[in-house]
Amino acid sequence: SQQGEEDPQALSIQEGENATMNCSYKTSINNLQWYRQNSGRGLVHLILIRSNEREKHSGRLRVTLDTSKKSSSLLITASRAADTASYFCATGGANSKLTFGKGITLSVRP
Amino acid sequence: NAGVTQTPKFQVLKTGQSMTLQCAQDMNHEYMSWYRQDPGMGLRLIHYSVGAGITDQGEVPNGYNVSRSTTEDFPLRLLSAAPSQTSVYFCASSTWTGLGTDTQYFGPGTRLTVL
């Protein structure tokens, strides 16, 4: 069974707008990771946030983690057409497994 | 650095055939894993390894074997291919601290079709 569940399943926004994607999980984690996948390609790591961290930034990306609610959000600011991709959250626990959600399809309209 | 490489990129098999998907990394990563990706299912973990000589099962291990004789290589064997194994297979690697999985570096994938 998959740990992380992303929401929404699909998101369509205009270039320049912000995109917010959410991930919820069920059991305790050591870290939570976000990945991007362009069509037909492998996954690319975006951000890793550890369980003792609440917020991390990387360029136009901002990730928050609320362990009390077992949820995380990924914010992409000032989106570009090149941000069009699928986004996955993945949870890493103490069991040495990384479990992925089913992904969010983001479309950024020029 | 080549990163994580996978061969072949595409493969068509007939039901019952066996084959090995190759995965290699040149980053001296201890942790390596195999995932399959099916439409609407995200990525599901097949097998993983935390070092040479050590392997363990993931979420969907049935029908697949792995071995880890070197740090660099982590081949995935399909013993007797079935149409249900039609999928895109990704290999990934990362450092391993023993405290959980770290940033994963993915290969480009192998697209497998079983007729």
Considering the chains and any ligands shown, give keywords for the structure.
heterodimer; A: 110 residues; mainly beta; six-stranded mixed sheet; B: 115 residues; seven-stranded mixed sheet; four-stranded antiparallel sheet; 11 strands; 0% helix; 50% strand
Would you kindly provide a written description of the structure presented here, covering whatever features stand out?
The complex is a heterodimer of chains A (110) and B (115). Chain A is mainly β and 110 residues long. Chain A has strands at residues 5-7, 10-14, 19-24, 31-37, 43-50, 55-58, 61-66, 71-76, 85-92, 98-100, 104-109. The interface between A and B is medium-sized, with 25 and 28 residues.
Order of helices and strands of chain A: EEEEEEEEEEE
How large is the count of helical segments of chain B? 0
Structural class estimated from helices and strands of chain B: mainly beta
Major beta sheet of chain A, specifics? 6 strands, mixed
What's the total number of strands of chain A? 11
Number of helices of chain A: 0
Straight-line distance between termini of chain B: 36 Å
Radius of gyration of chain A: 13 Å
**Terminal-residue CA separation of chain A:** 37 Å
Major beta sheet summary of chain B: 7 strands, mixed
Secondary structure: helix percent of chain B: under 10%
Overall mean confidence score, pLDDT of chain B: 94
Tell me the helix content of chain A: under 10%
Residue runs with pLDDT of under 50 for 5 or more positions of chain B: none
Uncertain regions of chain A: pLDDT < 50 for 5+ in a row?
none
Determine the strand fraction of chain A and express it as a percent band. Answer: over 45%
Structural class of chain A: mainly beta
Shape of chain A: globular
Question: How large is the share of residues in beta strands of chain B?
Answer: over 45%
